[in-house]
Write a structure and sequence with these properties.
This protein is α/β, with parallel strands linked by helices and about 230 residues long. The protein has two domains: about 5-120, Transcription Regulator spoIIAA (2-Layer Sandwich), CATH 3.30.750; about 125-230, STAS domain (Transcription Regulator spoIIAA), CATH 3.30.750.24. The protein has helices at about 30-35, 60-75, 85-95, 105-110, 115-120, 125-130, 155-170, 190-205, 215-220, 225-230, and strands at about 5-10, 15-20, 45-50, 75-80, 100-105, 135-140, 145-150, 175-180, 185, 205-210. Strand 7, helix 7 (about 155-170) and strand 8 (about 175-180) form a beta-alpha-beta unit. Helix 7 runs parallel beside helix 8. The chain is elongated. The relative contact order is 0.09.
């Protein structure tokens, strides 16, 4: 059994606290004094990633409120990201959910605060890559493989993916594989289209998954629910 630990990363005026391991006592490790010791005068935003929190009781609420007061006392803002449904339910029942700024995912926070360049490699220039993108569909029995080569960074490119998925479904595909082996970069709009593709397949009883994603693409996928839906692993 892993011990609870807290990983910390600082970007610009933001500090992230991420719980990892087996959180038997949820926020016991992440306390107000622990946070305060790491708050420097330049920190304006504090982000708590609660994705790995498995238990959340009354004591947890007290600790979270103490952290909130500590952060606000310094003049900073506290954000919660990747909040599990069980935690969200407890916060709502305690009538304190509105005291926090909550994001469904770290990726949503990154986009909202313009941190893409800090988290991901520089986005390729659209004009240079417009002709470079190639999306092809290869049929292998009941399996259909959609290969994406280049960077998905423009609206027409996103629509090409949906068209290929529609074609595979029309050809009675039993499963669809998105092959990212030669994909350089995908933007936030691509994530939305991948969600559309997943729902289309789910409605038709067809399994869709992704393979061969590089670290950049994988990071984008794993910061959203898409990574899990498509079977991506760290």
């Amino acid at each position: 059994m892993k011990n609870t630990s807290v990983s910390i990363k600082k970007i610009k005026d933001i500090i992230f606290f991420c719980l990892s391991g087996n959180t038997e006592t949820d926020l016991t490790t992440l306390t107000a004094p622990f946070v305060q010791e790491r708050l420097t005068t330049d920190i304006k935003k504090v982000v708590l990633d609660l994705e790995e929190v498995t238990r959340f009781y009354s004591a947890s609420i007290s600790r979270l409120v103490e952290i909130l007061r500590t952060v606000e006392k310094q003049g900073s803002v506290l954000y919660l990201v990747n909040v599990p449904a069980a935690v969200s339910k407890v916060l709502s029942m305690a009538n304190i959910a509105n005291k926090f700024t909550i994001y469904e995912s770290e990726y949503e926070f990154i986009l909202d605060h313009g941190l893409e360049e800090e988290f991901f490699e520089k986005k390729p220039d659209a004009r240079e890559n417009r002709e470079a993108l190639r999306i092809s569909l290869v049929k292998n029995g009941d399996n259909h493989v959609i290969r994406i080569e280049g960077s998905m960074i423009e609206e027409p490119q996103h629509n090409l993916l949906i068209e290929e998925v529609k074609l595979a479904l029309a050809q009675s595909a039993k499963s669809i594989i998105i092959d990212f082996e030669k994909t350089i970069f995908i933007d936030s709009l691509s994530v939305g289209k991948l969600m559309v593709a997943y729902k289309m397949c789910d409605e038709n009883g067809v399994r869709i998954r992704a393979i061969n994603a590089n670290d950049v693409v994988k990071d984008v996928l794993m910061l959203t629910q898409i990574g899990t839906l498509y079977g991506i692993e760290r």
